[in-house]
Amino acid sequence: MCELEVRGGRRLEGTLVIQGSKNSALPIMAATLLLDGETVLKDCPDILDVHEMLAIINGVGGCDGGSCRFTGEGLRLLHNKVDGVPDYESCMRFRASSILMGALLATAGFFAMPYPGGCRIGRRPIDYHIEGLRALGAEVEEKDGMLIGYAGRLKGGYYRFPYPSVGALENLILASVKGKGEYLFENCSKEPEIVDLCDFLMRAGADIEGTGTDTIRIKGVEKLNGIQYRVPGDRIVAGTYMAACGITGGNIRLRNIESARLEGVIEVLKKTGCHVFTDAGNDEIIILSDGRRKAVSSIETAPYPGFPTDMQPQMMALAAFSTGSCRIVDKVFESRYRTAEELKKLGADVRTDGGSVIITGSERLHGGAVRAADLRCGAALVIAALGIYGKTIIEDCGYIMRGYEDIQRDLEELGADILWRIKEESTGN
Ligand code: EPZ
Questions:
Q1: Looking at ligand 1, which atom is closest to the CA of residue 121?
Q2: Vertex 266, ends 260 and 272: CA angle to 5°?
Q3: Alpha-carbon distance 372 to 278, whole Å?
Q4: Which of 16, 164, 279, 385 could disulfide-link 284, Cβ–Cβ 3.0 to 4.6 Å?
């Protein structure tokens, strides 16, 4: 089991190129099942979830016998006939497998797969996915923990999302771009990752209007062709390192990141006392912090362009060092508060209050051993450790590798004292 050992107290300085976006790459990889000919994804992040999706795609008959792989140019994907039964175990291991339903309906005409897995940050049902696919004319049954869906070529349809779900919209987009007729979706999520998926599909020949708004119209097309595409920078990875700088003090320059995608995060970081300078023309963000951190009174997460839930744990870590108290309410995932319990082990003054968490900044945080409960919790604990003099061990770091190519490499590049460790599995005797 891998761990990280951090000796905090150092300012972060330097320049970093941000990796490609996990949550853009995963639906785009599923979308390649619909394309004829080869696709090359440049800057696709080399992370565990991408390899999980790659294994599934290879398994459903894509990649003419497994030729989907990272090459010098990027992630190469080429498909022939697609089967609708993805690997059961792989699907259970992460949430993004849910978006294969739409892609498999559009290619194989059916799917049979388990409920998706993913970080335990809330109930995370998939009712909108199922309702939406049924609204487009697909038959979807839930049987013995399996999801079984089938449809001839879809013939158009309408669906209004009860809540702007990212994954459910991705599913309906993938199900309809090669269907017959026209499709209208309302109350859509406006996340940058949706914009990237639609940008990718439109470059491959899809007819989509309204991306980035709450109303999306699609006209089905007969054919989509493989393309070369560069995966945009990961806004949550960039936000994580910005929060780290807010904790340690210093000045860092982040490249390959569109600052407009981080407006909500930048606004809050400025309130904590950070100075943030953006250069939209060069996809670059500079953040300066003198290490004095002011608490913002409250942070409430919301769908884009609101404050992103995926940055909530990292801001909880920053609040633990800030003067004053901050109330954090996650309105997207009702139980995404496991970071609080871990921060308490490091001396943080954190208490839960109904459906929210109140953090009062303290100078008394100390080193210790904590556990990554999920992907963003793990990242939050790493950046908290950067602000603590002494040694902190973060266990179960496999979660972090699901979304960060190499958080140790990146933070070391910025001057942190951080090392990977392999914890010997106890033999039990
Ligand atoms: C995507 O998850 C991201 N994951 C999440 O990032 C991100 O936090 C989330 O969107 C919100 O932005 C990927 O893209 C792989 P949702 P997703 O459907 O699609 C409820 C990370 O750390 N809901 O937008 O699963 C749901 O319970 C991960 O990178 C239903 O009730 O999120 C939640 O409360 C974590 N029924 C809300 O909607 C449904 O059918 C938003 O979920 C679907 C969702």
A1: 35
A2: 175
A3: 31
A4: 279
Indicate which residue's Cα is closest to atom 6 of ligand 1.
310
Give the whole-angstrom CA distance, residue 388 versus residue 10: 9
62: pLDDT strictly greater than 60: no
pLDDT tens digits, residue range 20-38? 999 999 999 999 999 999 9
User: What H or E segment, with its residue span, contains residue 152?
Assistant: none
Tell me how far apart the alpha carbons of residues 339 and 313 are, in angstroms, rounded to a whole number: 6
Strands 157-160 and 146-150: unpaired
Token pair recorded at residue 377: 């919790």
Residue 166 CA to ligand 1 center (angstroms) comes to 6
| Distance of alpha carbon 332 from alpha carbon 302, whole angstroms | 6
pLDDT digits (tens, 9 = 90+) for 204-243: 999 999 999 999 999 999 999 999 999 999 999 999 999 9
**Hey, what are 66's tokens?**
């497994």
- For residue 52, give the amino acid letter: E
∠182-188-193 over CA atoms, to 5°? 105
Token readout for 277 is 């300078």
How many whole angstroms separate alpha carbon 121 and alpha carbon 273?
A: 29
CA–CA separation, 128 vs 43, rounded Å?
A: 31
The per-residue pLDDT for 429 is 47
- Which pLDDT belongs to residue 64? 56
Residues 129 and 96: beta-carbon distance below 8 Å: no
Structure tokens that stand for 317 in this block = 């870590």
Q: Give yes or no for a contact between 350 and 357, defined as CB atoms under 8 angstroms apart.
A: yes
Residue 78 phi, psi dihedral angles, 5° rounding: -140, 130
User: Per-residue pLDDT averaged across 343-348, rounded?
Assistant: 97
> Which ligand 1 atom is nearest residue 308's CA?
12
The predicted structure's pLDDT at residue 425: 64
